[in-house]
Design goal:
heterodimer, B: mainly alpha, two-stranded antiparallel ribbon
Chain lengths: 116, 511
């Protein structure tokens, strides 16, 4: 339970960085922290206290395997989620670079020429 | 048919990778690659639609007997039912028009092959999301389509375009994160990701009410942001106008529906079940979008921004009808989503043509275009009449259906709001026609010429479809749209549609 609470707290930190900070790089870092909070949450969901890594060897009894290992599915999901997060972060960093070249600042307020 | 399902995703993916390979060798072939892949998808979608509007087919994913004797579906399951069939067809039609339009719209510039890589990825992501049989794959395909769209918004790397893409990416990723947390919560409570298994578990009451409400809230937040419902719309009026015209058409016409409306309906009607609370939230979001969108649209001078705000407004209609939870509400919402895809993509493509003809996006600097560009002008007039809800165009019938659905569900206040917003839409698009198409031709535009045929014909085709689906809706359209609505919400007195979906997936042979 503590672990779940901590992942949500971490997500809160990321969300704060993403929404409240004016510096684009800090926004990017906020997004990365938020991403990892969700990944940790996924791993935590699959964790079973005292159990081992989910590696099924030939000849293992499936029932005994299920009883002795953590849930492998969330780990597979986390791998996918990390790759997606990496793609989005790279794109975001490339955009920050482009905007910095153009405006010479990282502050979103000092470049905002769009009107909502 | 089941074996052909992966083609809906594989074909555009293949075209995308080929475009990347041809980048250095034959960059001029890449636009034709997009046209070829879209024509292939159009054939597949028509084939799927012609095989009957009911029934569920699968590909990938198979049943595995668990230790307790129950059957799980594992692997990447693709599921095609009447509801996904309608949207696949829509993606193929609008995508084909956009791909043909792009042939002459984009000059042969260094970035053009990459544009076609992203275009095909966008289509692959949308088709994948429409076919996904489990929640995690839905999330993955939503992300594939979203990331492609972030790149396309920043295709012209000016300052405002990249800024718009930055804003879009931040808000879009936030929405995706909310969706992923929602999926995690449901997985933690049930141990399932497959939509049919999840739906059965939720119907059994396996998920505590608090967890279900928390997940529902996250899904509403995520998918409403992807739909650009107010107050989560802030990215759309910047992102959609910044993209090249065919991409604006794809984003406003398709993406907000495939990732927003389709996913919202799939998750709430088939999996989670649409609660009183969710319906209330969606109604409020819908009313805000209807009015906020049209009021802001009305004040714009930039044609593309006007169209973008009007998309927010039109999505509001779809949301209030969806929120009713009745068969008629769903059917009306889907009909309006289809119509909006047709006329809004026609309008966005026309905005590109008008920009080409007049050299500006500002309505106040246009005028009298019909003398110089008659086909483009006729398309603008036709699509404007559709969106404004003038009979016999399709927009009239879907708005009428939404009003009937609202009144028959006793939502009189929402019905009045919807009728008022429809009137405002009419005013807005009368303004567009008066300023852009009619009136005096400015001296500056004496030498203006009509755009090439590969640009005006796809737009004209979309407008003709608007007219046809308006004239023929009782016979032709009702079959497809009605079947799509029945796939997620059964008409009163019949077996719940979600149950049929679940049974047909569990009933398949294991191997």
């Amino acid at each position: 339970m503590t672990f779940y609470a901590l992942t949500f707290a971490l997500a809160g930190v990321g969300l704060y960085g993403l929404l409240a900070k004016k510096n684009m790089l800090k926004k990017v870092l906020g997004l990365v922290i938020l991403d990892y909070a969700v990944n940790l949450l996924l791993v935590a969901v699959g964790y079973r206290a005292g159990r081992g890594a989910p590696i099924l060897l030939p000849g293992d009894d499936p029932a005994a395997f299920v009883a002795a290992s953590v849930d492998p599915l969330p780990q597979a999901l986390v791998l996918t989620s990390i790759v997606i997060g990496l793609g989005a972060t790279m794109l975001l960093v490339a955009m920050v670079l482009r905007l910095h070249q153009r405006y010479g600042t990282l502050d979103v307020d000092r470049m905002d020429r769009l009107k909502g | 048919m089941g074996a052909g399902l992966p083609l809906f995703v594989a074909l555009p993916l293949l075209a995308g990778f080929l475009a990347l390979l041809l980048k250095g060798v034959a960059p001029r072939a890449t636009p034709w690659l997009s046209v070829a892949s879209m024509l292939g998808l159009l054939g597949l979608a028509i084939d799927a639609a012609a095989r009957g509007a009911t029934g569920v087919t699968f590909a990938g994913g198979w049943g595995v007997r668990g230790i307790g004797g129950e059957t799980f579906v594992v692997g990447i399951a693709l599921v095609l039912d009447g509801f996904s069939r309608l949207f696949l067809l829509l993606v193929a039609v609008v995508g084909t028009a956009a791909a043909i339009y792009t042939l002459r719209y984009l000059a042969p510039e260094p970035g053009r092959p990459l544009y076609h890589v992203l275009f095909n990825l966008l289509v692959a992501g949308m088709n994948g999301a429409l076919l996904a049989g489990d929640l995690f794959n839905l999330y993955v395909f939503v992300e594939v389509a979203s990331i492609a769209s972030y790149g396309l918004v920043a295709y012209r790397p000016g300052g405002t375009e990249v800024e718009a893409a930055f804003k879009y990416l931040v808000l879009g990723t936030l929405a995706s994160t909310a969706i992923l947390i929602g999926i995690t919560v449901l997985y933690a409570a049930t141990g399932y990701l497959n939509m049919a298994d999840l739906a059965a578990a939720i119907a059994r009451g396996a998920v505590p009410r608090v967890a279900l409400l928390f997940a529902s809230g996250l899904f509403v937040l995520g998918f409403a942001t992807k739909t650009a419902a107010m107050p989560f719309h802030a990215w759309l009026p910047d992102a959609h106008p910044s993209a090249p015209a065919p991409i604006s058409a794809m984003l406003s016409g398709l993406l907000i529906k495939a990732l927003g409306v389709y996913a919202l309906v799939r998750v709430f009607y088939v999996v989670v079940g649409i609660d009183e609370e969710v319906r209330l939230v969606l109604t409020v979001l819908g009313c805000l979008s209807m009015w906020g969108g049209v009021l802001l649209a009305q004040a714009q001078d930039d044609l593309k921004r006007l169209l973008a705000f009007s998309s927010v407004s039109q999505m509001g209609y779809v949301l209030v009808a969806l929120a009713l939870g009745t068969w008629l509400g769903v059917a009306a919402a889907l009909f309006h989503a289809v119509n909006h895809a047709l006329f809004k993509s026609a309008l966005f493509l026309s905005s590109g043509s008008l920009e080409r003809v007049t050299g500006t996006r500002r309505l106040s600097e246009m005028g009298g275009v019909f003398r110089r560009a008659p086909v483009t002008s006729a398309s603008v007039v036709g699509a404007s009449l559709s969106i404004a809800g003038v009979p016999p165009f399709n927009g009239f019938w879907s708005k009428l259906l939404i009003l009937i659905a609202l009144v028959s569900a006793g939502q009189y206040l929402v019905a009045v709001l919807a009728a008022g917003a429809a009137l405002m839409t009419l005013v807005t698009f009368v303004k567009v026609q008066r300023l852009a198409v009619f009136g005096a031709l400015p001296a500056r535009l004496e030498g203006a010429r009509e755009v090439p045929a590969t640009m005006y014909l796809p737009v004209l085709a979309l407008v003709v479809l608007c007219l046809l689906s308006g004239l023929l809706w009782p016979v032709g359209v009702d079959g497809i749209v009605g079947a799509a609505a029945s796939a997620v919400r059964a008409p009163a007195g019949e077996r719940p549609a979600a149950a049929a979906y679940i049974e047909s997936i569990h009933g398949r042979p294991s191997r």
